[in-house]
Amino acid sequence: MKIGPLSIPLKEDFSLKSILGFEKTPVNMLLALSVIAMLVMLVVGIGNYLIHSHHAYNVTRQHPWGLLIAVYIFFVVSSTGFCIVGSLGDVFGFKDFTMISKRAIFGSIVTILAGFTVIAFEIGHPVTMMIYNVLTPGLTSAIWWMGTLYGLYLTFMIIEFYFLLNNDMKKAKIFGLTGLLVGLAAHSNLGSVFGFLNARTISQGVYYPTYFILTAFITGIFLSFIIMGFRYKLNFNEKTKKLLEGLAKIQGLLISILIFFMTWKLLTDMYGGVPTRSDVAHHIIHTAPFWAEVILVMIIPLLVILKDFGKSPVLMFWASLSGMVGIFFMRYNLVHDTQVKPLQMMKIREYQLSPEWIHYFPSASEIMISLGGLGLCILLYYVGTRAFNLDEEEGH
Amino acid sequence: MARYGMALDYKNCINCKACEVACKEENGVELGAEKHRIWVGANDVKGEWPLLDIASAAFLPSQCQHCEDAPCQEVCPTNATYYDENHVVRVDSDKCILCSYCMNACPYDARYVDDRTMTVDKCTFCSDTRLARGETTTACQATCPTKVRTFGDLDDPNSEISELLRTREHFSLKAHLGTNPKLFYLT
Amino acid sequence: MPKEISRRRFLQGSVALTVIGSSAMGKTNFIYFKKEKSSIPESITTKTSTKKAEEIPFLCGICVNKCAGFARVEDGVVTKLNPNPYFPKSRNMLCARGNAGIQTTYDPDRLKYPLVRIGERGDGKYKRVSWEEAYNAILHGTDKFKGLLQILEEEKDNRSTIAYCNGEGLSKEGFEVLMGEKIGTVNYVDEVSICLETTLGGYFATIGTYGEADLSNADYLIIAGANRAEAIITPDTMDLFKRSKGRGLKTIVLDPRFTNTAAKADRWYAVNPGTDLAFVLALTYVALSEELYDKAFIKKYGVGFEAYKNHIISHKYTPEWAENITNIPAKEIIKTAREFMSAQSPIYYQGRRSVFSKNDFQLRRAMAIFQGLSGNLNKKGGIIYGEPLELPEEEINSPIYNQAQGRFDKHNIAILSQRAGSWMVFRNMVVEKKSPYPVRAMFMRKHNPIAGVPNSAKTIQFLKQMDLNVMIDILPSDSMMYADVVLPEASYLERTSPVASYGLLEPAIVQRKAAIEPLYETKTPEQIYKELAEVLSKPLFEISKKYDNELQEEVKKRGEKNVYKEDGYILSDAWEKDVAERNRERVVKAFGEDAWKILEEKGVYYSNIEKYHKQVNANEYQYYPENKKKYSVETDNIKLVFNFRHLADIGVDSMPTWKDEYLFSVPEGKFRLITGRHAQFTQSATTNNMMLRDLIHTNYLWINRRIADKKGIKFGDMLEVKSKVGKVTIKAYPTEKIAPNQVFMIHGFGGLSQDMTMAYGNGANDATLLEDIHEPVYGAAVMHETNVEIRKV
Ligand code: SF4
Ligand code: SF4
Ligand code: SF4
Question: Quick one: CA dihedral C575, C580, C581, C587, positive or negative?
């Protein structure tokens, strides 16, 4: 296809028919229906939001950030993760990993698009944002940097993908590298959105900006297993197996580092004696989502990897699904735990209990928009697999 | 060009909440438990009846501290939160994108969402109402039965607030966070 | 019968009342300013603009205190109420309720039009009618209820078959003129007998005044059962808390529950409810036995000191004795008595609250005596006698109704107040058919007896029993639901009220001016009085003529026209001039033209205001210079009556005496119900106020936390509370602020009127639970002698 001077090599049979022409197995049908359901939810959720604005959400004065922020983070971390994995081959030249590059870069684009979609309905005035981000930039604001850098990042990713499609590996590499650097900067800035909150001692500090890069890499690898699993219907060829084994080993290392990070973070939080940090940390380890994060992201995948040093790609596929569910909790916990301790601990009405921990449970609209984001992400990805050749070009 | 602040003789406070209502009526603040620019906090009294710990039952009036180094201002991506010419921390609702970052960043829970404009709102020191008309007191100050509040220019050495801060011991809330609040609690 | 006639003549015009008025409409507009048409604001709160706006002086009408303020009016809408810095009583403040007063005026549930009942009493079915139709319905009745004409006809012109009640307020006396003087019934009941009657009575009987506590100069304060932080009275609240907490005014609080006032105390004693008298007697014992009193003062003013001394000592009212009764340790009592008597300016705060126990009159006597023992009366830092500013009185031409019978609510009461009797005794005698003649019509204004008088069920029965109920009010209250004719009144921001005088130490007169025109079809009270009087005059006169022999004679002698006019039968003649005009006349007469000008502009006047009034700092003002304050005055009122012999003649202890019957027992498993106030709430009148509801949305039942734990009751659990006379459901508030055998709820919630959408069914009403017990001196309702059972539901 030609758009002006650009030429985008689409698959020859790309058409509505090809999109609908998937094999009608029960699993595929279920997946298709789920995606449709999620897209319907997206529409309903957005409709609800447009009518009731933020009243459609369960966000409050004390808990202004809710599920959508968590889901946004979930998507952009996924994007960064894809970007890192994709760069292994085509930027850093690890030959084993080039076969996944194009797919991963495409993944990074669809996930960040999903993320932007979700956040557009969390930010009250996205249009105002675009205007005043430029007119009166808040250079001391982590959100400004994060938003701006992610915007740039998306641009670079699209350009990289374009060159990948056109097999222009040299230019792809240049834009890939720039995109990766901008992405990492954007991503650590996202961490610093929390790290700068000195009102929120539990999140304040250097931990989140660095941890975000680590967990992005971990997320990228989980996602790689998932997309490759779908690509090969769990029937991996040797080359793929080799790729996945490599990724699994890296993952083993990364998860170990993560556990190490987290343990120390928690221990210093809990026993470091900093007020409003240690009590929050003690509170956190008594919550279920925390353990969901630990078990699904760390324990299960690590056990699978340790079983035979990453030689069971199918098992790893399932462990990665567990991992991604866990990653969702990880994002949710980050957002919620940051806000769980009220900043104002006194009673402001006679007939109320003293403020304790802040409760939050997402509203139906928030859940619908979040699932809608996931549906959108899957749909875009699926359409991409029909439109583009995301496999490594023969002869490379 | 002034540098406005407020001194609170907080031991006078009887938790009557006249200030909260005056603020709402003056500034057209919405009703609702979450929508307040100003509030008075109380703790549950400690001890068991009849040996209660009277000292634990103090009342603490609070509102935006108009920090000199305001975290809410630092984190605002569009500079919607700004210091006006009188060093009052204000929100320009035209620029506010409702990312709510400031609400998370303010250590004092001073900010909330105004549902009519769908932007973040907070105490303005009555800048766009009373001060704009040339009045010299804030609504919360004027109405207070026990005269807890003294509002004034910290840069003017002859102002009453400057005099109070020179002569009376005082503290600020969460001073360790380095926000440099301009609300001073007299002891 | 020439003799009789002379009595008649003598009586005429001898009733001088300070208040008269009429419509604030009409001329008012020209006298003041051209008002914009009132309009309803678009949102609940209105941000004030930066434009110049009108600032109209008003006097707050939300509670009894009467703070002065300025209403900011923009385009016919009141956008803000600000404190008035000129009024020495409220000293530049408005509390939360005062600020929220705007919401009363703009309450969407307001009574907007006259209504006539078309359904059954209590079911809230009414028809909107014109004012004329409403007045006529009062006179002639409808197919649903009888009119005044028929009732009076049937009762042969016994005017006392009509009863009336009115809550506190500036237009109250006008209603008394209409009902009591002009229409001529004696059966009047008001809030005093469910409030502070015994306090006033006790203090006047003992020291000759209720006085003012000079809290800005006192250095020691015992404040018992008065919750000045939550039941705000100015300037007491303001003065007290500026100097408590180790800043000059040592404060000892007695209260069964830990109130916000207790939170400000140096010491708090959780006194056993109803036993303050034993505490004061023991304080007195210490003062007398240790000879700590002011001997010179007693010598000069004391009456019966030796008898009292013997009485106290011989009864052995020792601190140890009191400890068992009051729950306050003897050594604390001794310490308090010594501290009090050795303080420079000690005050045992007179208090101002409802009657809690049967011994309240004697308690007040004992308190006043104890205060007197310190000699700290009529001086700086003490109880002030002061000098109120006098306004010229108004003469009312009251007709004499020979057929009208006298008061009957004297059952078990020693001193029946002739102005307004005992609500509870009156109601009960009517309900129990013990009245010597039938009471058949009830006129109510700004009063909600169903919520206010203990035992709501009986009040409802009382109202149901009437042939005619009329209600004049702003909101559709619980009691309004039983009215046959409803006359909607303008709120206090929509009316100019009769000028009033306040203060003893720093006296001033104040005027409330209408900030806006009455909204909807409402009218000012004085206009309603006048118009109703106009409609009733002639027909009622005809009835009197028919049954009153003396009147017939008189008519024969002087001619009907002359008698009708000269003897006051033109009921509306008391409102010939409107309020604004009357105010002007009275003020000019007393203080001159300049005074009127100042009053018009500032809302407040006192001599030399322009010279004396100065700003001291950003918040505070000087009203009178130190040497012009009326700390000490020459007056004959000062006395200290220890032994009031005359009381014995009417069966009341002549000296405060403790009786074992005052001990109140709470059976195992039950709780003593106590009630009280809250700073963001004024009884049932503000339950529908959006702004205040935002601050306190409902009442809760305080229950001791440990007891609640044992019973498995958690915060917010629904409880059923049951007494002998009624039951309610209410949410639980477990707290350590109350004793294990007591429960507490704020008075006034639990609205029954469906037309008050915010208040309806919200919380519980204590009056439903409280038994109808009254104290023996004035028949004032006793609020804290009811036991209840509670059950989780
Ligand atoms: S108005 Fe004054 S006394 Fe009342 S709550 Fe506010 S600060 Fe406290
Ligand atoms: S108190 Fe909060 S809202 Fe006010 S200036 Fe400080 S950080 Fe900003
Ligand atoms: S200064 Fe004005 S805006 Fe701020 S809390 Fe007081 S009344 Fe409200």
Answer: positive
The answer, yes or no, to whether residue C339 has pLDDT greater than 80, is: yes
Decide if B119 and A123 are in contact by the 8 Å CB cutoff. no
Q: What distance in Å separates the CA atoms of residue B36 and residue B29, rounded to the nearest whole number?
A: 7
Structural domain boundaries, residue C742: 665-792
Looking at residue C789, its pLDDT comes to 96
Distance separating alpha carbons of residues C310 and C318, to the nearest angstrom: 13
- pLDDT band, residue C31 (cuts 50/70/90): very low
Of C649, C677, C700, at which residue does a domain stop? C649
CA C622 to ligand 3 center in whole angstroms: 26
Q: Each residue of A298-342: pLDDT tens digit?
A: 999 999 999 888 888 899 999 999 999 999 999 999 999 999 999
> Residue B32, Cα to own-chain centre: how many angstroms?
18
pLDDT exceeds cutoff 60 at C113? yes
Question: What local confidence, expressed as pLDDT, does residue C277 receive?
Answer: 96
pLDDT tens digits, C520-555: 999 999 999 999 999 999 999 999 999 999 999 999
Residue appearing with tokens 């004027």 = B142
Of C609, C131, A160, residue with least CA distance to C601: C609
The two structure tokens encoding residue C398: 């009251």
Asked if residue A54 has pLDDT above 90, the reply is no
Q: Is residue A8 part of a domain?
A: no
Q: DSSP per residue over B58-121, as a string?
A: -EEEEE----TT-HHHHT-TTS-EEE-TTS-EEE-TTT-----HHHHH-TT---EEETTTTEEE
- How far is Cα A87 from Cα A100, in angstroms, rounded to an integer? 9
pLDDT at A374 over 80: yes
Q: Cα(C504)–Cα(C514) distance, rounded to whole angstroms?
A: 27
Read off the pLDDT of each residue in C733-737 and give the average, rounded to a whole number: 96
- Are C347 and C305 in the same domain? yes
Q: Do B33 and A349 touch (CB under 8 A)?
A: yes
Position C30 pLDDT exceeds 80: no
**CB atoms C700 and A349 under 8 Å:** no
- Residues C590-616 as b or e (16 or more Cβ within 10 Å = b): bbeeebbebbbebbbbbeebeebbeee
- As for how many domains chain A has, the answer is 1
Does residue A252 lie within any of the structural domains? yes
**Cβ atoms of residues A39 and A375 within 8 Å:** yes
Same domain, C641 and C770: no
Q: Length of chain B in residues, anyone?
A: 187
Contacts of A60 in chain B (CB under 8 A): 34
Angle at B71 between CA B68 and CA B77, to 5 degrees: 120
State whether residue B34 sits within 8 Å of chain A by CB.
Answer: yes
Assign A106 a pLDDT band (cuts: 50, 70, 90).
Answer: very high
Whose CA is closest to B45, among C735, A290, C653?
Answer: C735
Chain B residues touching residue C238 (CB < 8 angstroms) = 145-147
B108 interaction partners in chain A (CB closer than 8 Å): 343-344
Q: How far is CA C548 from CA A129, C533, C543, C554, in A?
A: 86, 20, 8, 10
The interface predicted TM-score of the complex, written ipTM, equals 0.95
Q: A162-209: per-residue pLDDT in tens?
A: 998 888 888 888 998 999 999 999 999 999 999 999 899 999 999 999
Residue C116 pairs in a beta bridge with C127, C485
- DSSP conformation class of C413: -
CATH number at residue B106: 3.30.70.20
The number of residues in chain C equals 793
Asked if residue A218 lies in contact with residue A297, where contact means CB atoms within 8 angstroms, the answer is: yes
Count of domains forming chain B: 1
> Which value, to the nearest 10 degrees, does the dihedral of the CA atoms of residues A176, A177, A182, A188 take?
110
What 3 state SS string does C508-544 have? Answer: EEECCCCCCCCCCCCECHHHHHHHHHHHHHHHHHHHH
Q: Does residue C565 form part of some domain?
A: no
